[in-house]
Design goal:
With 368 residues, the protein is α/β, with parallel strands linked by helices. It has a domain of 129 residues: Rossmann fold (3-Layer(aba) Sandwich). Helix content is 40%, strand content 19%. The chain is built from 17 helices and eleven strands. The strands form two sheets. A six-stranded mixed sheet has the order 4-3-5-6-11-10, with helices on both faces. A five-stranded parallel sheet has the order 2-1-7-8-9. α12 links the parallel β8 and β9.
């Protein structure tokens, strides 16, 4: 497939691995931020092809995984109400709340619909003026422009029956939180290419300079990832800490300025609680004052929410990069895609789901 197959060339991949092996003279720990990158690394076995000196740990860049449990429970309560059409991307339907998920609400009679764009939810609101239509707006900076456009369009049309339950999170504050943690081992980051295609990468410069941590903007195909790893290793070996772009076919330094303008109009920056991680200051977006009337969290008063995480789930440690999924005692046993204890096992970008999908649990079963 054009623009994909050339980034999956096995001979070029082996050359890059040889380069990394030659360059790495000491042990280095690198973190890929994005869950999509995690899946590509595990699917292609990149972490196992790298030399022993290079360890990959998996970051919190799975928006489904870090959506706060209280927000999931609030979504479940809203979706259960009569007269509400609750719209969401499909990967949110299996994410466990304190006691159930959106599939359970749907099976009990709730009008829960999978959409492929937030603008689909706006159309549903147009078509059903006698129902409240709520869209579950989650994600990193990547999905924010489309979600902002849906809110902007609904307000412009005067759709009083449309609202959005917002749980947007931002990458740079999460990087800082990881680097500030006393248990941190991360020495360099592979930044998420699709986030940077929207936001650019200027905002990473202060992080690299302040923490002495190389950051390489990286794509998602095997050669993208290996090139990003190589560039990070070169910096570490040379004692440099800069922001470099290994994804130039999709990312420029400034990013998508019209998309940023739309986001800046509709959203405002707030402190945000991350599932499994906790509160990170100024790490999220919420609807700005001019759009507050479309905020489902304010439109629907939900009380008596008492969140309860499974005591067996170590997803927070996985998201912080301090534990690999197959090091969790419940992985592949109590916790599987059919019986998930946490969002990292059911999300399409979850690290636990990647390890399970690509057979890492079978090795646990085979071990004595």
């Amino acid at each position: 497939m054009k623009y994909l197959d050339e980034f999956r060339d096995p001979e070029l991949a082996l050359r890059l691995i040889d380069d990394i092996s030659r360059l790495a003279t000491k042990r280095h720990v690198l973190m890929e931020v994005c869950g999509g990158q995690t899946h590509s690394i595990i699917r292609n076995g990149i972490d196992r092809l790298l030399p022993d000196e290079i360890e990959m740990v998996h970051g919190p860049g799975c928006p489904v995984c870090v959506t706060p449990l209280e927000t999931i429970d609030k979504a479940l309560a809203i979706a259960s109400r009569d007269g509400v059409i609750f719209c969401s991307f499909g990967d949110m339907l299996r994410v466990p709340g304190s006691g159930r998920d959106l599939f359970s609400v749907k099976s009990a009679g709730g009008d829960v619909r999978v959409v492929y764009s937030p603008l689909d939810a706006v159309q549903i609101a147009r078509d059903n003026p006698d129902h409240e239509t709520v869209f579950f707006g989650i994600g990193f900076e990547t999905t924010a422009p489309a979600n902002a456009m849906a809110v902007y369009q609904a307000k412009r049309e005067g759709l009083t029956n449309f609202s959005m339950l917002v749980s947007h999170v931002l990458v740079p504050p999460a990087m800082r939180a990881i680097l500030d943690a006393p248990t941190n081992r991360v020495e360099a980051f592979l930044a998420a290419g699709h986030v940077c295609s929207v936001m650019g990468y200027e905002e990473y410069d202060p992080i690299a300079a302040e923490y002495g941590t190389p950051i390489v903007v990286t794509g998602f195909e095997p050669l993208d990832l290996l090139q990003g790893i190589k560039m990070a290793v070169v910096q570490l070996e040379e004692g440099r800490a800069e922001v470099e772009n290994a994804y130039q076919r999709a990312v420029n330094r400034k990013g998508n300025l019209p998309a940023q303008a739309m986001v800046a109009d509709v959203f405002t920056t707030i402190d945000r609680n991350w599932r499994g991680i906790g509160m990170i200051p100024q790490s999220g977006w919420a609807l700005a004052d001019d759009y507050r009337s479309l905020d489902a969290a304010e439109r629907f008063t939900v009380t008596d929410i008492a969140t309860v995480e499974s005591p067996l789930c170590h997803a927070g440690e996985v998201l912080r990069g301090t534990l690999k999924p197959d090091e969790c005692p419940a992985f592949g046993k109590e916790c599987t895609p059919r019986t998930p204890l946490g969002a990292t096992m059911v999300s399409a970008e979850g690290a636990c789901a990647a390890y399970y999908l690509y057979g890492r649990f079978r090795e646990l079963e085979a071990s004595p």
